[in-house]
Write a structure and sequence with these properties.
Length: 287
């Protein structure tokens, strides 16, 4: 069984519509795919409406959170699966985060325009097309303007946290986000915990504390992780009794990633389903 539990659509910063994501998942031979757009669940309904026969869909989201290390804020992405999308705390926090993304995105664009970069806020908003504004949307505007050749190059040259145009945003405290997902009947898994600077905050000791607070698992097999990092995370997860997932983090053409290039074991998916309270169940053959 081929299971990929981390994929994005145009409801956040992917380039496939939710319907196209479902077709791409089926074409890639997936049996199970999770739609996990940033800070919203807007893609769920159109994804399910377009679900091909034989494909199971896990509804989820990727929450923007913050941990602390050595006096610095560290961005940590937290995947939530099978939670109640109408849970009040999640509804309110996702709305706040979408506004935070919009304000941050426009502030970045303002800095670029002031520096003479040939893009506009209207271009970025048109690219986002109603999705929460993210840096990849700005990256696509830079590609369209001929400033860079790819979104990856846009991040390397202009959009990274160390770049001249970077503006931080006020994300959810990580323990708070874990608590929200648990209260909404879902299961939380930390996305790419060794991929993007999270190592400073996500020590083995801190992960143990988060497990005590209800953290469900770690995304062990991810394109950003090398073999030693995967071995380390697998050992931590097993020691703490956490789930281990594997996912592509697919974004369509925004990133050079293939659906299904990393996989989750069927046993781990069964544990995710069993740990949720069933309010939001998988939708698939016979479901």
């Amino acid at each position: 069984m081929l299971i990929d539990l981390h994929a994005h659509s145009t409801a956040s910063d992917g380039t496939d519509t939710p319907a196209e994501l479902m077709l791409a998942a089926a074409a890639a031979g997936l049996d199970v795919v999770a739609i996990t757009d940033h800070d919203n669940t807007m893609g769920w309904a159109p994804a399910l409406a377009a679900r091909p026969a034989g494909l199971t869909v896990i509804r989820g989201a990727e929450f923007s959170t913050t941990a602390h290390a050595d006096g610095h804020r560290v961005s940590v992405h937290l995947l939530g699966y099978l939670f109640d999308p109408e849970h009040r705390a999640i509804v309110d926090e996702q709305a706040r985060l979408r506004q935070e993304r919009l304000h941050r995105g426009m502030a970045i664009v303002e800095r670029m325009v002031a520096a003479g970069v040939p893009i506009t806020a209207d271009q970025v908003m048109e690219i986002a097309a109603g999705a929460p504004v993210g840096r990849p949307h700005i990256g696509r505007a830079l590609v369209d303007a001929g400033v860079v050749e790819s979104v990856d190059q846009a991040f390397a040259m202009h959009l990274s946290g160390r770049g001249p145009y970077y503006v931080p945003k006020a994300d959810t405290d990580l323990p708070t986000a874990i608590g929200m997902i648990v209260a909404a009947g879902g299961v939380s898994v930390i996305a790419h915990p060794r991929g993007r600077g999270e190592r400073r905050a996500l020590t083995a000791d801190y992960l143990s504390e988060l497990a005590d607070l209800g953290l469900g698992g770690l995304e062990v097999d991810h394109p950003d992780h090398d073999r030693p990092e995967r071995a380390e995370l697998r050992a931590i997860a097993d020691r703490l009794g956490l789930l281990r997932t594997g996912s592509s983090d697919y974004h369509g053409t925004n990133k050079v990633l293939r659906l299904g290039q990393e996989r989750t074991e069927p046993e781990m998916l069964e544990r995710i389903i069993a740990a949720s309270n069933g309010i939001t169940a998988p939708v698939g053959p016979g479901g």
